[in-house]
Design brief:
142 residues, disordered C terminus, 14% strand, single chain, 3-stranded antiparallel β-sheet, alpha+beta, 2 helices
Amino acid sequence: MVAVQRLTDRRGVSLLSFLLVFSPVMILLMSMAIDGLSTVATYRRALGLADVAARAGAATLSYRGGGRAVDTGWACFNAQLALCTSANCTALSATCTADDSSVTVSVELEPPRMLRGPFAVGPQRVRATITAEPRSGIAAED
């Protein structure tokens, strides 16, 4: 009877020691996976925001073109306006450059992190850059 009781005690101790050793390791691995996935999601969000802003600026270029001088400052203003309408402008960093034929917008975001310091996975900031050109002409049926 005593041998059976010792055997069950040993199983309980080994299970407890296994949980104490591997629980922090599993939590660390899950946190690293979540940080990596949030970095990918943040990149996709930055890419979408840059796309919206660049298309808005390029649309301004297509309206302002037509033989007149193109106002690239107005195109970047409309790109920033579209960006601030789509997201909180205080949480991101954006740059815009425009010439007569295209608008380039770069958006930089900071992904949310569960882990800091040496266990942090991925970059601290994510940058996405999109260049858009205005559409030329409108398809019409005769």
